[in-house]
Every structure is written in structure tokens, then in C-alpha cells.
Specification:
six-stranded mixed beta sheet; 27% helix
Length: 366
Amino acid sequence: MPQLHDLMRVLEAAAPLAYQESYDNAGLQCGDPQLEIRGVLIALDCTPAVVAEAVRRGCNVVVAHHPLIFKPLKRLTGANEVEQTLLQAIRHDVALYAAHTNLDNVAHGVNRKLADTLGLQHVRILDPKPGLLAKLITYVPASHTDAVLEALYAAGAGQIGQYAGCSFRSEGTFTFTPGAGTNPFLGTPGQPHTGPEDRVEVLLPLHRQHAALAALRRAHPYEEVAYEVVKLENTHQEVGSGMVGELPEPLSPAEFRQRLRAALGVPVVKYTDFERPIRKVALCGGAGSFLIGKARAAGADAYVTGDLKYHEYFGAEGRLMLCDVGHFESEQFTGEIFRDLLAANFGSTFALLIAETLTNPVRYDF
């Protein structure tokens, strides 16, 4: 029977915790990683009603998009809904897990799901993040270069966008003198040794550095492995905020808003005036006002997000149409990402259910 830590491994491989924003609190919120999973209930939010539904439907894990705990708790008395939810989960031995901005920030996450729902093509990250990559350089005898590279690839190195197994190698000459008591792969203790060697370079996500160095040491034949890790300021094209893509055909602003209402099932779209056809569309699930400038700079004709405030609508500057479809509405398909990912990895080994409880606190009165 799969355990909770198995589920965590799958989710965190797809949406690494290292990619969450500094203010976020994604990950395991409550529960024992050794818990045997009977069933998983998937929800956008975790509330007392969601935990009650999990218990009723035989699930002992809740996977949610929004973390229940955002701020540190000083006591657990049931004084508010967060504490009540936690107490209920603990009482019924229900584990709570959240994948939030880490799932927002990966190329196959929340924003890609929204882009696919709207039918966008040629999609890319709107605001790629810098400082998440490093270059690993090492020196290997040619007889072991391929084995070392395969080990590094398996540990997460050498991936550039959709291209795997990326590396660069160049030939050079090494020189060293093994010390007394050593057991060198090449050479004799106390005698200078010179020979050919490959310089190998691979791109490496910083959060995989420990795993990659461990793999390097296991695969490398030398007792002492020479390597360099150089942090890069390059943007990570597969990690970042928002997305931008194109509609198959241009639509009038009214036609585009109708597409939003139909695709998202929303009764209303708040928007700014815009008269030109809509072809390039930027978007961000959830609260995305911070990307209005990026959407303008990308040349988007429309920017779709939720939770825009009055003064933020002026940020359109007449250069694009801002569309506020609602926070819940822009993220409502997130559960499908969890379901598909877990089903692909665990099959039918445990129940995998989408919550029936509606957690959207917003209602519309016409």
C-alpha cells in the first residue's frame, strides 16, 4: 500500500517546493509521512467541510491547492476555521498536503491548465524566474564520461526546456600527484601523473544540487572528485509566473469575453475597455495584478486573472484588456492536475476523488 511520503515524492517531483514563493507554505501541513493511503480527496481549499467529506468518502489524505496554514500557529484551540480544520483532520487521522505557488510556477501547472482551457497555442512562461540554475563542471577520464553523464541526467541535471541529456565536453590534460595512503584510479602514490581527461559541463537546477553531487561521486572513478558549481543568473524558461500564448484566430473583445464565460463557466467578467482584436493572451491563475506590466511588455491584447482591485484596472493604460474572472474560477481546474498526476503514478491502488464540496466563498446576485 503506498504511503504518504510516496505521494509527496510524486507531487514534489512535478512541483518542487523550491519553486514556491517566499511567502508561501506549500508541502505537508498535517500528518505522518508513513501513513498508508486509503484514499485521496482533491480540493482547491481545505475547510472543515472538505475534511468531513474526506472522512465520509473514506479518504485519509486531502490534497489542496491553497495551504491551510499560511502563518505560524501559537495555539490550537479551535478558535478559528484554520484551527477547527486542523483539529478535525488530526481527530480523524486525515493528512493535509498543499501544492500552491510551486504548482503555479511550473510550466505544466495551474497556468498551463488555464491556457489549455482557453485554447491558447504557442504557450510560454510570462515571467521566467532567474537565479534557479547552476552550471556543474567536472573532470572525468574519457572511459567513464558517459557513465558519469548518465548518472547526472538521472539526478535531474542536463535538462534545457524540452531537451534532455544536454551537456558539453571538451578534451584536456590533467596533472596530479597522489599522496601517501591514497588508492588512485590512475597513477602511483608519490609519483606525478599526467593524462587525458574530459571536462564535462551540465545545467543543473539548484534544488537538485545535493542529489547531483551525490550521483557524481557514486559514478566517478576517482577518490577525490574535482568539480565546480557556478550559480547562474539565467532565467529558468520552464519556471515562473503567468503564461502567454495565442488564440488560433483573432476574436473581437466581446467574442473573447464570451469565450471566457463559456470555458470557465463564469456568470460575469470584469474588464477594461479595449477595441482592437484579441490574439495574444496573457494569464495568471489566482491573484495576478503583479503581472499586468509583464503582460503589457509581452504585447498581450488581453490579460486574464483574478482579484483585481479598482486602481489596478488603470494599469491597462489602454494597451490591453484586463479581464478579472475571479480567483476560484481561474483555478477551478487545478484538481484535474493533481488527479491526472496521481493516477499516472499510482493507478487504482487507492481511491482518487475530486471534492464535491464547493469552497468558493463568492456568490453572484443578478
